[in-house]
Amino acid sequence: MQHLSSIILIAAIGKNQELGRNNDLLWRLKSDMQFFKTLTSGHWVIMGRKSWESLPPRFRPLPNRTNAVVSRNADFSAEGAHVFSNLQSAIDEARTLQAEKIFIIGGAQIYRQAIEEKLVDEMYLTHVNGSFDDADVFFPVIEESYWHIQEIGRFDADLNNEFSGRFLHYTKNAVKF
Questions:
Q1: How high is the pLDDT of residue 115?
Q2: Which of 74, 28, 81 is CA-nearest to residue 51?
Q3: What CA–CA distance (Å, rounded) separates 117 from 33?
Q4: What average pLDDT does this structure show over 89-107?
Q5: Using omega within 30 degrees of 0 as the cis cutoff, is the peptide bond preceding 107 cis?
Q6: Looking at residue 137, which CATH number applies to its domain?
Q7: Whose CA is closest to 110, among 169, 37, 49?
Q8: Is residue 16 part of a domain?
Q9: Residue 24: domain span
Q10: Displacement of CA 18 from its chain's centroid (Å)
């Protein structure tokens, strides 16, 4: 029997839904990295192949997490991570292994699929106070009325953070979803 795990999407986005450029982040935000690490440690993280490849080699696999990589390439392998041919099979395996929380950590295609297929129970989005004209990947537009949105923190631009930002927690509105 499958265990019902929470499926949680986590991302940092710019003012215009920007996620990244050239398979890299658009900013350096120590506060966001710490937020990500605190939330995802001890849990499953599911990412696409490009997101896996964008991780610095010393952080692959992400420590203290069960790493899952989704790739359509049947020959793809990721040392230290489980590889799945699609997002649903990764979620199913995490649930079979009784994962308490499953974090979807990118990239844009995986985020879009998870949102379009209504797989997500919660989202943690870091809203970065910056616009990035050279971004080449974007977070999907979401229907905000489907979500209860609560600000759970903020950070200022400083030596550790190129930009200021806010941490928002989105939970499904049972009525609208």
A1: 96
A2: 81
A3: 27
A4: 96
A5: yes
A6: 3.40.430.10
A7: 49
A8: yes
A9: 6-172
A10: 13
Q: Please report the DSSP string for 68-128 in residue order.
A: EEE-S-TT---TTSEEESSHHHHHHHHHHTT-SEEEE---HHHHHHHHHTT--SEEEEEEE
pLDDT surpassing 90 at residue 157: yes
Q: What is the pLDDT of residues 109-145, one digit of tens each?
A: 999 999 999 999 999 999 999 999 999 999 999 998 9
Q: Is residue 177 part of a domain?
A: no
The three-class DSSP label of residue 176 is coil
Report yes or no on 17 lying in a domain: yes
pTM exceeds 0.85, yes or no: yes
CA 15 to chain centroid, in Å, comes to 17
Domain count, the chain: 1
- Cα separation, 116 vs 113, whole angstroms: 5
Look up residue 95 and give its two tokens: 């649930």
CB 114 within 8 A of CB 11: no
Give the tokens for residue 154: 């903020």
DSSP annotation of 161 reads B
Q: Has residue 45 been placed in a domain?
A: yes
